[in-house]
Structure formats: C-alpha cells, structure tokens
Design goal:
By secondary structure, the chain is of the alpha/beta class. 45% of the residues lie in helices and 22% in strands. The protein is built from 14 helices and 18 strands. Bound molecules: NADP nicotinamide-adenine-dinucleotide phosphate and magnesium ion (MG).
Length: 402
C-alpha cells in the first residue's frame, strides 16, 4: 500500500513522561506505517524547554501560527518538586498558558463516546462539547478584605483624568469586595471561535450567562455574541441547519441534564472551569476527552485533556508494566491530521483520521481496553491491555479496516 502523502507539515509538540512514551508508540505503530508523515518537530519536554530557556515553546506557537495546525503532547508545568527533579534554571510557565497567550484562543473539550462506557446521565447519547472562555473575570480579579465600617466604590478614570464612580456598598462592619473585568476584544474572539467551531463541527451552539442579575457585565457577553451572530454568522448557520441559542445559566444547566447531547456549550471562564469537570466526569474519564485550542485566525492546536500521567511513568521507569490509556492522544493526532487534510484538500488523510478513530473505538467496544476503562465498563469479559498491547490492538483493527 502506498503511504498517504502530506503537503504542509504539522507542528509536532512532543512532551513529557508517560505521554511522551505513548507519543512515540502511536507514531511508530499507527501513523508512520500508513502516512508519509510531515511534521516540524518541537521538543517541549521539560529538559529541552530548560535548555532553551523556554524559547522552544514560543517557537512552537509561532510555527503554529505559520502553518495553522499543531498537535501537542501533554507537558509538565513545573512546580517546586520539578525544580529539583529536573534541576531547572527557572520555574518555567505552563506551556499551554504560553501557547494560548500567543494564539489567543478558546479551548473546546469533548468526550469520546464509546459503547460500554456509559454516561452517568442516562439521557446523554451524544458528546457535549464545552467551550471555555480562557480570559478574565474572577481569574483576573482584585479582592479586598474590608476591616470595618466605610464606603467601597468602583472608580474608572479615563485618559483625560475624568472619573466615573459607582457605590459598591456602604459598610456598617467588616466584609469583602472583589473587582472583576473583561475586555470586549477577548469576548469578541471567544464568540467568533465558538461560531466557527459550531460551523466546523455542524453542531448547535448554546451560550448562557446570568444577564438578568448582571445587567451590564454578563449582559455585555450576551450582546456581543448576538451582534456578531446577526452580522456575520446567521446566514451560514441557517445554511448549515444549525442553531445559536442563548438562555440563562440556570436554565442551561437544567436543559443540559435533560438533553441527549450533541451540541457546544459556550461558558464564561468560571462556568467553563466548573462545568467541564462535571461533564468530563459524567461522561466517564479525562482520558476519553479531546481538547482543541481554536484561535480567532483559524489556527488549531490539538491535545489530550489529561496530564503526563506521572504515576504510570515512574512505574514504567522501574520496569513495571503500565496500562495507560492512549485514546485522547491518538485523537489529538487524528484531529490534527483531519484538519491538515481539510486545509490541504487531501481527502485520503481525512479518511485515514476517521478510520483510525473508528479502529480505536471498535477496539474498545470489542472488549480490549486499558485498566482505567476496564474498571468502569459495562461490557462483560473484557481483555485488559497494557499500554503497548492496546496500541497494537488498535493497529490490528485498523489494518483489517484498510
Ligand atoms: P494526570 O497526568 O492527568 O494524571 C492524574 C491521574 O489520572 C493518573 O495518575 C491516572 O490515575 C489518571 N489518568 C490520567 N490520564 C490517564 C490516562 N491517559 N490513562 C490512564 N489513567 C490516566 O495529572 P497529574 O498526575 O496531576 O499531572 C501530571 C503532570 O501533568 C503534571 O506535571 C502537570 O503539570 C501535567 N499536566 C499537563 C497537562 C497538559 O499538558 N495538558 C494537563 C494537566 C496536567 P491512576 O494513577 O489512578 O491510574
Ligand atoms: Mg477545573
């Protein structure tokens, strides 16, 4: 069989620990035998980040802007323990944070649904994608403890030095206050990323805030979404047969639980933080979540939602067997390859991505899975595969399909 040819390289961001081990296995077993894989390789493993003073992370993000599609392995975000473990020059920032700051994107997370791993919510039949705004609100807030009686105000001073004041509260005794902000440019790019992703995946888009209570703050989010939708997306949505739908956050939560899934739920920063953990857990496992960063200029970065699975890596280093789930990392590759195929008009590459995803799902549904899934599956008589056996089983399913 001829290998599938690529025209533009994928930006490949290698990572750390157990996921770095899986990364190589996936390339060797599932990609290189079938694709004439073209990548521009960036080693985001912590050692090389340290050697390059983290320049490699910045370079990889700039390359993503240049080529348009990246695939990223999970990486260590250093903390005090990692400083000693890797003898680091500095406590380098989270690579995801650095890349997100350069690409200015929105993160979309969706569960990978397989038979045998049943959602806790019985009505959920299709994935629910959470789109989380990753800027501002309570994450960039200024807080103050009020020691006793006194007046607290919001003050805005424009460049001409003129002030606008609003009373927050006339305190009679001790209390607390908090000042939050967001910027319209960020809300606009969040809205566009959501509309583009809905069109891309042909799913309805839901958005919810507490605009009845927050008549200026949350209402601005609602207004910006509606204005952009009416001006730039309504016709395309109609043509695609999908819907944009705004409701109150409490109503959205109730509807999500009653729904059968199959839509994108756009969330403000805090709502997205909280709700994505709930949705991921209710769908079964973080190792069964896809994650993609979509930038407003149409740049995509695909990754797994979980970390580097440190505990398994230490077992691996001791020569012990591991049973680490590679599904989310496989889907990061298929997501990136499919997008590359779409942008470069290489239908074989898109079909290959579809088939590899199907082979992965079929393998699990056929009863071969890693330990994390074996513990929660409703399937009977399953085979628990180690890390390598699972990837080899997917290869076998894939070869039978091709
Ligand atoms: P983690 O790597 O997500 O793993 C936490 C636990 O979840 C594991 O010990 C394992 O449970 C289970 N798990 C996660 N992924 C799994 C998989 N693919 N297969 C099977 N089990 C899986 O989180 P962490 O241990 O808190 O973080 C480790 C490192 O990852 C940290 O240095 C952190 O900075 C980094 N991190 C990176 C990213 C990213 O790059 N996107 C995201 C989060 C964290 P059991 O041990 O019970 O089997
Ligand atoms: Mg959270």
């Amino acid at each position: 069989m001829d290998k599938i040819r690529m025209t533009t390289p994928l930006v490949e961001m290698d990572g750390d620990e157990m996921t770095r081990i899986l990364w190589k296995m996936i390339k060797d077993e599932l990609l290189l035998p079938f694709i004439d894989l073209k990548t521009e390789y960036y080693d985001l493993g912590l050692e090389y980040r340290d050697q390059t003073n983290d320049q490699v992370t910045i370079d990889s993000a700039l390359a993503t802007k240049k080529y348009g599609v990246a695939v990223k392995c999970a990486t260590i975000t250093p903390n005090a323990a990692r400083m000693t473990e890797y003898n680091l020059k500095e406590m380098w920032k989270s690579p995801n944070g650095t890349i997100r700051a350069i690409l200015d994107g929105t993160v979309f997370r969706a569960p990978i649904v397989v038979k045998g791993i049943e959602p806790t919510v019985r009505t959920w039949k299709k994935p629910i994608t959470i789109a989380r705004h990753a800027y501002g609100d309570v994450y960039k807030a200024t807080e103050m403890k009020i020691p006793g009686a006194g007046k607290a105000e919001l003050v805005y001073t424009n460049e001409a030095g003129e002030e606008v004041r609003e009373l927050i509260h006339q305190f009679d005794g001790p209390g607390i206050i908090q000042g939050q902000h967001n910027v319209c440019a960020s809300i606009e790019s969040f809205a566009k990323a959501c509309f583009n992703y809905a069109l891309d995946t042909k799913q309805d888009l839901w958005f919810a805030t507490k605009d009845t209570i927050s008549k200026k703050y949350d209402h601005t989010f609602k207004d910006i979404f509606q204005e952009i939708f009416d001006a730039e997306y309504k016709e395309e949505f109609d043509a695609a047969g999908i819907e944009y739908f705004y409701t109150l956050i409490d109503d959205a939560v109730a509807r999500v639980i009653r729904s059968e899934g199959g839509y994108i739920w756009a969330c403000k920063n805090y709502d997205g933080d909280v709700m994505s953990d709930m949705v991921a857990t209710a769908f079964g496992s973080l190792a069964m979540m896809t994650s993609v960063l979509v930038a407003p200029d149409g740049t995509y970065e695909y990754e797994a939602a979980h970390g580097t699975v440190q505990r398994h890596y230490y077992k691996h280093l001791k020569g012990e067997e591991t049973s680490t789930n590679s599904v989310a990392t496989i889907f990061a590759w298929t997501g990136a390859l499919r997008k590359r195929g779409e942008l470069d008009q290489i239908p074989e590459l898109m079909t290959f991505a579809d088939k590899l995803e199907k082979a992965t799902i079929d393998t699990i549904e056929g009863g071969t899975m890693t330990k994390d899934l074996a513990l929660i599956t409703t399937l009977k008589d399953v085979t628990v595969a180690n890390s390598e056996e699972f990837i080899k089983a997917v290869r076998k399913t894939l070869e039978a399909m091709l």
